[in-house]
Specification:
Helix content: over 70%
Oligomer: single chain
Low-confidence stretches: none
Number of strands: 2
Mean pLDDT: 87
Number of helices: 3
Structural class: mainly alpha
Largest sheet: 2 strands, antiparallel
Order of helices and strands: EEHHH
Strand order of the largest sheet: 1-2
């Protein structure tokens, strides 16, 4: 009896295709190679999805940083948004090693400085 590498069904020795799923019956070595290729492809897809999510997070971090600066100038309450933008931008920069996300870190830190200065001036007056 030959076991199908795709679904695990036992098939007769003469079978060319699996009786359950229809997958071509191959030797043990070929089955192992196919399974390794599938696993490698799956890992590559996970890595690409992770990088894509990081890039989206980097874009959002820039929005938070800019929003923090704007709110600092208008109301003086943008410190939280600037902090979120700074942390998200820093995480993406560290993970992707891309200079594109340094703007989020820079603008987030700038928003933090403006926010703290605004709060400091508010407390003094």
């Amino acid at each position: 009896m030959i076991r199908c590498y795709n679904c695990g069904t036992e098939n007769t020795d003469e079978a060319k295709f699996c009786s359950l799923c229809g997958t071509k019956i191959v030797s043990e070595a070929e089955a192992q190679l196919i399974l390794e290729q599938r696993e490698k492809q799956k890992q590559e897809e996970i890595k690409l999805r992770y990088e894509d999510n990081l890039k989206r997070m980097g874009d959002r971090s820039l929005i938070f940083a800019v929003l923090g600066i704007i709110l600092d100038f208008i109301f003086g309450i943008g410190v939280i948004f600037s902090l979120i933008g700074f942390i998200m931008g820093l995480k993406v920069y560290i993970k992707l090693k891309s200079q594109n996300y340094l703007w989020s870190v820079f603008l987030g830190s700038l928003g933090l400085i403006f926010g703290v200065l605004y709060l400091f001036l508010l407390v003094i007056n």
